[in-house]
Amino acid sequence: MSGFSLADLERIVDERSKASPEQSWTAKLVAGGQPKAAKKLGEEAIEAVMAAATGDRDNLTYEAADVLYHLLVVLKIAEIPLENVMAELERRTAQSGLKEKANRQSS
What we know:
Elements (H helix, E strand, L loop, with lengths): L5 H12 L7 H8 L1 H20 L3 H21 L4 H12 L3 H10 L1
């Protein structure tokens, strides 16, 4: 198993976002703003869904990587650190998913 983590990818996205948009796809996405980055995330998510629905494991792996990357770009633009997302996941996993969902609906 690889030692590469989402935190590693977040650091790379941060570094590359500071480059020239002519030199870095990440910088180009960031310079294009949230609407462009969010649209690209949506496109990649649809491609991942299609790969999952057709049982194409190799393509699903590829598209899942794209989704994670583009999600981190969207989070970068929104100035939401991955740590915040992980804390939310940790909070949610402290109880069953059904209970957590019921609590959200009653709020």
